[in-house]
Amino acid sequence: MRTDVAIIGAGPAGLLLAHLLAADGIASVVVETRTKEYVAARIRAGILESASVDLLRAAGLGAGVDAGGDQHRGIYLQWPSQRHHLDFVDLAGRSVWVYGQTQLQADLVAASEAAGRAVYYGTSGTALHDLDTGHPFVTFADSAGTPQRVDAAAVAGCDGSFGPSRSALPADQTSTWERVYPYSWLGILADVAPSTDELIYAWHPDGFAMHSMRSATVSRLYLQVPNGTDTADWPDDRIWAALAARLGHGQDGWTLTPGPVTDKSVLPMRSFVQSPMRHGRLFLAGDAAHTVPPTGAKGLNLAIADVALLAPALGRLVRKNDAALADAYSDTALRRVWRCEHFSWWMTTMLHISGDPFDAQLQLSQLRWVTSSTAGAAGLAENYAGLPIGF
Ligand SMILES: Cc1cc2nc3c(=O)[nH]c(=O)nc-3n(C[C@H](O)[C@H](O)[C@H](O)COP(=O)(O)OP(=O)(O)OC[C@H]3O[C@@H](n4cnc5c(N)ncnc54)[C@H](O)[C@@H]3O)c2cc1C
Question: What proportion of the chain, given as a percentage, has pLDDT over 70?
């Protein structure tokens, strides 16, 4: 096959990139190892920044968020006996939307199928070739095991943290930065109406907890747990008891309503950046180039921001053989990536218990400042609600 851009990975970054390219008249072929059903069912992120929603609307993909998204003005920050609301609209002029990654993935798949775009699911053996030339190509075996080759003007590595694109960059021309945190999140999805109107981020001596939601009838909740935690050690009753304690059940009349748990998983916390996000005709986007701990709700939004920059860069490269935007892509994207890396690290280290009593006092001091100073609150609001795509 011959196309303009070969895209590896049909997650949010890959499918959105294919959509934005198509709007610019650029053809693509998407290659994905998992089945369409598997990708669609993955329970992951759930918060969209205002810039992400603006971009989806401008791309004709906003109907789902507008119909099923829940616009939130802010979040609650709390620690024992204290709960404070931060109103992002008042503080930074922007809101966020609760909209599950599963819902966004469904919108992207629907748009891709309506347009009849080429997406190969259930592939194996993806390999990248001749990236240093103007004629890169990708090989793989399709779901029937038939070998395939896609020749393209550029390859977009949108294949997440474990795909082959990241390691296709020569090690001696690549820098990586990594931080592994000494704790994980135990996340549950529950068929119960949320006990809160907006997300609660709770500092607690037993560990961080968070109350999020996916819809009016589905709640998403998290507990800080040690690395290596086995979900088998956390029966539902234990989870709800820990959530009730950490989220302040009974405090000022607030109650946490438990419900049937439909999904349970452990998510390790990690920060990672690979630079540059480009080698020859290969361009990385989303989790393929960086990972953030989920505390700042940035992973999905960064993937969207990357492809918003990459699509016009590839458009100019393919159509006009003009490499100006493509050459600038990595530096431009990394500015925003590092801002989000910092914010995600900052939220994580402010809210998670490290076991060091000195850290705990610093965290409480920081929380008191963020919730009582307009300057402190505005800094959090500006970063959480999201900076402009080109920041
Ligand atoms: C387990 C998990 C839980 C998360 N939970 C949260 C959360 O609670 N809150 C939050 O804000 N963020 C969360 N995130 C982060 C957020 O979901 C990601 O940042 C987001 O999915 C990034 O989108 P992406 O398209 O770049 O990568 P991905 O969504 O990872 O998509 C990459 C795609 O590439 C495919 N692929 C991999 N290898 C190959 C190959 N060899 N050939 C072809 N295709 C390949 C993968 O199957 C996948 O479909 C979570 C991430 C993970 C991994």
Answer: 100
Query: Beta-strand (E) ranges in 104-230?
Result: 118-120, 124-129, 137-141, 147-151, 154-157, 175-190, 200-202, 209-213, 219-226
Tallying the residues shown for the chain, one arrives at 391
The verdict on the CB of residue 15 being under 6 Å from ligand 1 is no
* Ligand 1 atom at minimum distance from 13 CA: 25
Q: Which H or E run includes 75?
A: strand 74-79
Task: Measure 117 CA to ligand 1 centroid, in angstroms.
Answer: 21
CB-ligand 1 contact for 164 (6 Å cutoff): yes
Tokens coding 234 = 């956390």
Distance CA 303, CA 207 (A): 29
For atom 7 of ligand 1, the residue with the nearest CA is: 45
Give the residue ranges of DSSP H helices in the chain: 12-23, 36-41, 50-58, 63-68, 88-92, 101-114, 165-168, 236-247, 299-320, 324-351, 357-372, 374-385
Is the shortest distance between the CB of 12 and ligand 1 below 6 Å?
yes
Cβ–ligand 1 contact at 49 (below 6 Å): no
277-287 pLDDT per residue, tens: 999 999 999 99
Kindly report, residue by residue over 131-186, the tens digit of the pLDDT.
Answer: 999 999 999 999 999 999 999 999 999 999 999 999 999 999 999 999 999 999 99
- Of the candidates 17, 64, 267, 274, the one whose C-alpha atom is nearest the C-alpha of residue 169 is 274
